[in-house]
Amino acid sequence: MLSSVFAPLLVALLSSGSAHAWFRVACTTPLVQERVDPIVSPGIIPSNHVHTVHGANNFAPNNTYDTLRASSCTSCEVTQDLSNYWFPKLYFKDPTNGTFEEVSNGGLLVYYQNRGNGDVSNGGPGLKAFPPGFRMISGDPTLRTKKYPEGQGSQAELAERAIQWSCLRYDTANSTGYDGHGFPYTDCEAGFNARIHMPACWDGVNLDSADHQSHMAFLSGLDNGVCPSDHPVYMMKLFYEVTWDVHSFASRWDNSTGWPFVYATGDPTGYSWHGDFFNGWDQTALQNAIDNCNNPNDQTGSGVTEACSYLTVQSASIAGACKVSPVVNEPINGAPLAKLPGCNPIQPGPGDATLYSDSNCPAS
């Protein structure tokens, strides 16, 4: 059964009309939170900004597919999946003194979706499992504004549209004025919900690329459609969802002070929201599940992961016990911080932000 901690996330997804998920990988508590990024900054300690990391416990600055497959546990609930998933941490910037405090969330929910014209249910030959060594990202930590007309359909516009937000409210009368782009302007009593569509079209050759995105492309309709001719291999489409408890801070700010939450990237706009995926799947198990567990006549056609005989779902308590110690020794939680970890000055845009390393941090 899906953990109750994800109830607000599931309700939001159902209401958005995107809930025809094939199966779900729930990751309730983080494996670790630190400035490490084996995709964008492999081998570099520390990387630019703090991530919340879920998945296999061999996560490291220079991990590989083989090292992930040798992991002894995963903080996610499907045991055949020894992948890592990560995204930037959210902080509350106190309007009275400028200090930063972490904002808690209900965990990461990853939807593995059968989408696109390549899927059997859409008349295609079938989707392919992620190959060993495969990795990708969606989103851009430097973005601070919307750049493309909605629905234009270019890959750049699809990449922008792949990053989505919702302010979950009980009092909808007070939510007017928020268009769903970037951070909202009011409290979100039921949580601030952020989502990421990952690209599902592979070039069939490269396991990664210089920008960690060009080897992949989005489906023509983002959530469905065709793959570009230069990215002909249809894969499972991943969809990330996280809901933060911003309401816990409601008594400490109001609209006159402005939205007080920022990502670890130094972003007060929300547009730098992004997600990373480093494949650690048992490839045979995933391909068997793709080929045999999307049956409209049983529960596998309704996103019930436990109904797929090729996948083993462990309890949230067992998954939650899988932890690793951070390799970067710095405060990121607990007492209020005088500044964001690393060199991440607040950059509101609208131009793209600059990403700094600890060694080239400009004088404040």
Task: Give your account of this protein's structure.
Keywords: Signal. It is a single chain. This protein has five helices and 16 strands. The protein has 364 residues and is of the alpha+beta class. Strands 1-7-14-10-9 form a five-stranded antiparallel sheet. The protein is globular and about 55 Å long. The protein starts with 6 loop residues before the first helix and ends in a 44-residue tail after the last helix. Mean pLDDT is 92; it is low at 1-20.
What strand line-up does the widest sheet have? 1-7-14-10-9
Main sheet makeup: 5 strands, antiparallel
How much of the sequence is in beta strands?
Answer: 15-25%
What low-confidence regions span 5 or more consecutive residues with pLDDT below 50? Answer: 1-20
Instruction: Write the element-wise H/E pattern from the N-terminal end onward.
Output: HEEEHEEEEEHEEEEEEEEHH
**How many discrete domains?**
1
Helix content: 10-25%
Shape: globular
- The secondary structure category is alpha+beta
**DSSP strand count:** 16
Q: What is the helix tally?
A: 5
Protein name: DUF1996 domain-containing protein
Keywords: Signal
InterPro entries: DUF1996 (IPR018535)
Signal peptide: 1-21
Highlighted features:
364 residues, alpha+beta, 5-stranded antiparallel β-sheet, 5 helices, 10% helix, signal
Task: Chart the SSEs and their pairings.
Layout: H1 7-16, E1 23-27, E2 32-34, E3 51-55, H2 65-69, E4 84-88, E5 90-93, E6 100-102, E7 105-113, E8 135-138, H3 155-161, E9 163-168, E10 191-197, E11 201-202, E12 216-217, E13 233-234, E14 237-244, E15 261-263, E16 275-278, H4 283-292, H5 316-320
Antiparallel strand pairs: 1-7, 2-3, 3-4, 4-16, 5-6, 5-15, 7-14, 8-16, 9-10, 10-14, 11-12, 11-13
